[in-house]
Amino acid sequence: MAGPRHRARELALKVLFQLEHSPNDDPDEVLAYHAAEDAAGRAPAIFAGDLVRGVLAHQAELDEIIREASTNWRPEQMGRVDRIILRIAIYEIRIARNVPMRAAINESIELAKTFAGEDSGRFVNGVLGKVVEIVAP
Q1: Distance between CA atoms of residues 8 and 85, nearest Å
Q2: pTM
Q3: DSSP 8-state secondary structure symbol assigned to residue 39
Q4: Which long-range contacts (CB under 8 A, 24 or more apart) does 95-100 make?
Q5: Which of 96, 105, 4, 85 is nearest to 50 (CA)?
Q6: What is the DSSP letter of 91?
């Protein structure tokens, strides 16, 4: 059974995925909708909200880090799920710094495998490995 932080990352992924498709939607309303739909508890919803707001606030910076780490793929060329997972992980690693780096990376790989497939898990792992080399504290 997935822990509350994993469920929060899944929730954040769903919210950011919808917001990328419908950027005029209100992030708090989208979060409330998906949290209710997933029957997410209070703690996962709060953590997911922090991730969503952080990624949205730092998206340009996160995408620049992705560009530096991914020599063959610009963020605009990546699959939407992969790109959002990378943004969440890089936000946690570089900006929020409220979880161990290894945990953020492992969670991201699992999200990619679950929502985008085995190859996406390897892709996310490879990009995040380079991100760690570039920006790790």
Answers
A1: 13
A2: 0.91
A3: T
A4: 95/54, 95/58, 95/61, 95/62, 96/50, 96/51, 96/54, 97/137, 99/5
A5: 96
A6: I
